[in-house]
Amino acid sequence: MTPTLAADVHAVTTAADGGALSFAWLLIAFPLAGAAILLLGGRRANAWGHWLAIAAALASFAWAVLGLVDLLGRAPEGRSVAVEVYRWIEVGGFRADVSLLVDPLSITFALLITGVGSLIHVYSVGYMSHDENRRKFFAYLNLFVAAMLVLVLADNYLLLFLGWEGVGLASYLLIGFWQHKPSAAVAAKKAFLINRVGDIGLLIAIMLMFTTFGTVAFTPLFESVGGAGQGVMTAIGLLLLLGACGKSAQLPLQAWLLDAMEGPTPVSALIHAATMVTAGVYLIVRSGPVFEAAPTAQLVVTVVGAATLLAGAAIGCAKDDIKKALAGSTMSQIGYMVLAAGLGPIGYAAAIAHLVTHGFFKAGLFLGAGSVMHGMNDEVDMRRYGGLRKAMPITFATFGAGYLAIIGVPFLSGWWTKEGIIQAAFDSGGVTGQILGWATLLGAGLTAFYMSRIMFMTFFGKKRWADDAHPHESPSSMTVPMIVLAVGSVALGAVLVFNYTLAGFLAPVVGAPHHEFDLAHMVTSPYSLIALAFMLVGVAFAWVRYARADVPVEAPKGNFVTVAAREELYGNALNEGLFMRPGQVVTAASTAFDNHAVDGLVNGVARWIRTGSENLRLVQTGFARSYALTMLFGAAVVVATTLGVTFA
Amino acid sequence: MDPMNYIVLAAVLFTIGAVGVLVRRNAIIVFMCVELMLNACNLAFVAFARMHGGIEGQVIAFFVMVVAAAEVVVGLAIIMQIFRTRRSASVDDASLLKN
User: Which segments cross the bilayer (chain B) (predicted)?
Assistant: First the structure.
């Protein structure tokens, strides 16, 4: 927990010439070039554009695998490799390089981004096949992958910010991809604006770090965190958290994520479930030494995580739109990760492990939802589904795998990683640890309920289809990525968590695991059993309400809790009341001030000069004799004054 | 003789000239009145030169004569032109620049 940990942890070596790592910039270059070619190529690229985009994503993935192999070939202490690309800005004492930091943490993210990203590229070929702007869609997807890789591979906060803004742009473009729908255009703007609030926090944090430490590069900055005052560190931590909240849809900047579901479903899967929204978690984990020097900020991080995990779950329980229910679930799961990241070194590895498995099963669930929508004429209302398991067996199976993983069925991915977070929360000790731990357990129960609700309403029960619905299984370009993700949802957790494989791999960056891996303890610990019990209660409750009983096609009115959850816990009303309306008043007031006070002053001066000139003009009569009289009068005054002065 | 008398005479002549400029409309008369005022000034200069025993006043009187001569040349030419175009020598008629 001590900040001094950072010094020996972040010993960075420089990339040796010739290895895959010295060309790590290719990781970013592939998708960036893909995006450029697709965007600049115009209609000529329509026929083969999407294949090029997939090739770019796959090449990037292959390079990430090579990087992983290279890292594994090094000693654990030597696995932080700096790759200098070029000097970006050098002004006075300020220097920012475009240089990459390839270490276990960033390569884990790079693999997740390019791996899941490639699968979703493939899926999109089928999903977007009827869209005339498919080439543009793939260009934006490639742009997103490139920006996200910049974000995670950057070795300083400034370059990280560049990627941070890049993914924000890609997210904006993709949410508003169907901009002919006003709701999509508004949702894109909303996401952009709320993200901007978070970005301001991150930007101020970067400035504060530069003024405090004189650098924005990770390694030297983390080595000197011990020298700064507690107040500064807390401020930096809270501002970083604000940035993370914006990007990761955590309270209080959560409102954009549900609206972001207006984007095409592959976008929801890739950006708003698997990768971009986890950037906040990455930021917190990467800035670990900063947070460890600011316990207050850490506490706030855990509180934000716990609050969001419950709020997201509550929203997920009430939404009838399948994508919005899944989006509530995403909020909730990221809440888990943020909570774990706020616990410090005992939680980092758990957060990242859950992030990776969540990336798989949530992407799989979204792709499944997209497949259902694809077969149901883009219907998103779950009350119009029902009994789809026979019509779409592959979708049902893959969605089911993701479902079982996320609710935490023992030995599936979600169980391994969620147990890690629950355990870490209780291990953090004290009353706080107890409260956080019970929040995660309650969240587990709610997760089981809302996911079962989605599952039962969609695939079980009676058919409640619209008259013109003819559900059919999706083409293989869509089902294959779903199957791959389903396999990941089932098995990945065990691979990552068993014997702390991932935690051990990440140890050079985030600190070694807390204690020895003990499977028996993990299965039989009271918290694990309570989580299992909560899960079973959640599933049973959902079974009674949504599988055994008939689901009405029209949503019943519901009690005030349901109504509040449907209204996203009044987050939008709050934003509207607190910021939008006062903002409009301020805008109107400043417009009025500008129109009347500022313009009034300027126009008043002009009017005054104009009337003055009008009157002064009348003096020019044109009569020479009146001029002469004026001159005489003036001369008389001069003479009289002179005489007066002389003789007075 | 008391030089003060010349000063008084100069003041009287200047006043007559000034009143003439103000009350008469005929450009020629106005012009003559201007000449009268200039000569009143000359008389005052010479009288002051005499009173102070200096020579500067007399020198300035010569300068005024030269300037007056030049002014007469230009002024009469303008009056001639106005009279030709407007068939009038009244200064009040030449008020094109008003307002």
Answer: 6-23, 28-48, 60-80
